[in-house]
Amino acid sequence: MIYFLAFFVPPLGLLLNGQPFAAVFSAFLWVICFFAGWFFWPAWLFPSGYAIVAIAMKNDSRRHRELVEAVEKHGPPPGWRP
Hints:
Blueprint: H1 2-8, H2 10-16, H3 20-36, H4 46-74
């Protein structure tokens, strides 16, 4: 759902994902690309692409942090050899 929101309203999607500075940058990028899009129509897709990539990177970072915390708490998986 957050990716759908990030595609249509990138600053709001980033803000709801907990990335306020990225949301401000995306709003700035959105305004610039809105005017540039009248001359080069693919520019309208740049803010959406930025928001989707930023959300995906934040989600990957969260998953990685959870995995590291689980390994630190419970130890490595059975059969793991360094």
